[in-house]
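Notes taken during the Thursday session

The instructor put the following on the board and asked us to keep it in front of us for the whole hour. The protein is ERCC4 domain protein. We were told not to look anything up and to reason only from what is written here. First, the residues (235 in total):
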Amino acid sequence: MSHILLSPVDIIIDSRENSKHPEFRKEFQSNGLKTAVQPLPAGDFLLLAAPGKKPVLVERKTVIDLGNSIRDNRIWEQAKLLAEAAEKEGYQPFIIVEGWLGVLEKYRGWKIQSVLRVIDTLMLDFEIPVLNTPNKQATIAWLIAKAKSLGKTEEKKIYRMRVEKKPMSLKDRILYVAESIVGPTLARKLLREFKTLRNIANASIKELMVVEGIGVKRANEIYLIFNTEWSDDQR
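Then, after some discussion, the predicted structure tokens were revealed:
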């Protein structure tokens, strides 16, 4: 367990979220908020608060993210982790679902009632408020407004973060390797299609192009990574 002491800031951004979406931090800073980037035990953003107010631990999901976590049945474990982390530290857990919920009905054939039942369970059983924003800019606007409503920066408590260092599971290590090659979105698509890193490495350019989002250029790049001989003097 490591302890990291930070000077007072308005928002702590999870390091993984920041690497995928650096635009959030830029918007926060351009609106006068002080930020820090650190690994969070749960959630994507921690909005710190002045005495008498409660910090807010926010999990951000796009509608597609929500759909994937419902389909894989990960939503309940994620909600449990968020609620437990918030309770342990005295934070208010909060989920933002970004985008039009009707996308899941229109393009995946899901009944909107089923999606709403999941949200209902999150709010009533897990006691996690859920806010649906229309787009990323609206999400950013809400986070900025909420952070400012929690008090002046210099009044906010210094956050002593407890980060438990756990070894990555085999599944996480496989995903990490794939993400280092093509990024988080395509990594999952590739692994769903080919199942193993070995199969990805052995795939032809034509076979790689079967995956949605991978065209000739990207398929060729992936193929070259696995089929180009490496040497110490290579530039």
